[in-house]
Amino acid sequence: MNLDKPYDLIVIGGGPAGYAAAIRAGQLGHRALVVEKERAGGTCLNWGCIPSKALLKSAEAYQAALHSEAFGFTCKEIEVDFAQVMARSRGVADQMGGGIEFLFKKNKVDYLVGTAKLIEPGLVEVTEGEHAGSSIKGDRVMIATGCKPRTLEEVPVDGTRIMTSREALAIKEMPTSIAILGAGAIGAEFAYFLNAFGCKVTLIEMLPNVLPIEDTEISKALEKAFVKQGIDCRTSTRVDDITVLDGSVSLKLHSEKGDETLEVASVLLAIGVTPNLNGVLADSCKIDLNRGYIQVDENYQTSIPGIYAAGDIVGPPWLAHVATFRAVQAVNGMFGHSQPIPMGAFPGCTYCQPQVASIGITEEKAKEEGVAYRIGKFPFAASGKAVAVNHPEGFVKIIVDEKYGEILGAHIIGSDATELITEYGLGMKLEATVDEIHQTIHAHPTMSEALAEAAASVHGEAIHI
Ligand SMILES: Cc1cc2nc3c(=O)[nH]c(=O)nc-3n(C[C@H](O)[C@H](O)[C@H](O)COP(=O)(O)OP(=O)(O)OC[C@H]3O[C@@H](n4cnc5c(N)ncnc54)[C@H](O)[C@@H]3O)c2cc1C
Questions:
Q1: Whose alpha carbon is nearest atom 48 of ligand 1?
Q2: CB 3.0-4.6 Å disulfide test: which of 48, 228, 312, 455 passes with 438?
Q3: Mutual angle of helices 82-106 and 16-27, in 10-degree steps
């Protein structure tokens, strides 16, 4: 690695935005460097998407074993080694981080572990790590430093009583009880995981529904499923005070039912994220920000020419696939390969059981915008495959434009929702009509037949309901 020779692109941050940007630059034959202060893969591979999915898989497998009589056998004396459940998740994260380091090599991307600071356009300094003190030149710089979990000033994170997702992904022992603040995707996933292993979970959400950005009908269905699983869901509930005691945490809750005190072993803060820009920009680098997030134009260029940004650091939606999409578009554009494609509809997924996945608008949004729409719906209980695999819960709902039958929004709750949503996403990208989805032959028996049936149901043509 020759840090003295100027790079075509220096990327600060090695998450899904940063690593994808550098690999794309390498594919296009450019000299790229990634400076990452922790491990390649960023939040997603190390402390987010991937380790959390490994945990959720353990929870699902455990639940399947617990309820194995549904399949005609019983598993007696199932022993949980919680430390091993966590260790597996860390192992998966480690393996995937290593995979990115391999891809860097394969694409001739230079990679160094260290903290980077943008000094001026074209100049990055490594401030910490093995290469601390190095000044590196690059014709273009991309900032892809992501976000970190939002915390509360009044209750410092200690990793035991008060945690964010980061600490929760590394616990050695399961708390006996937990209050999860925030029922967005991260809160809902941890609620499912911990409850599945026997932790007493209270899921607290200030807004009226769990997964508040999802279609209300889907959110209500998830809440019902969670309550059935034993999760105490407190929606429309505000946390007024949190006091860390000796060996527990006391929370003062307020809802329309009145005030209440809840005592739990731990609290998990799943209340959103804040941009990771501390120490990234030298004082003289006055990049336009919006509430702390870097502002970019349609080419992902910041207010300073030659400085680009992509991923969580440019603001919502805070999703890994969106981060990668934006970063690759930015690189295609900056090297004149192709004009960046504007971001269209993107899926949002929550991997608890039942899973939730959606793309496009909700029914509430369609109403709010006065769109003329029709609804198609199909319950998994009417799907032969869903019943055969013992996952009959949930349904598919699509919102289609009344005149042309184009899909405006799709919402799925059910065991494979996060895999299924891509079909509707592709349909939206290709401006497919609901009839074209219906007329596409779906293999039988598959969960995906429910997508064709939901499409058919828009015109009352579903066969199985
Ligand atoms: C628990 C959890 C679960 C999640 N699950 C999902 C999911 O299922 N699906 C999904 O789409 N999204 C999920 N996300 C969100 C997803 O992780 C992020 O959207 C994604 O990681 C954003 O990618 P990024 O490259 O913008 O930033 P990041 O992945 O955060 O990467 C930024 C990198 O920059 C590095 N960095 C910061 N400052 C510096 C510096 N000065 N110098 C060098 N390096 C620096 C950081 O160490 C970090 O590695 C989850 C997040 C969490 C916390």
A1: 42
A2: 455
A3: 30
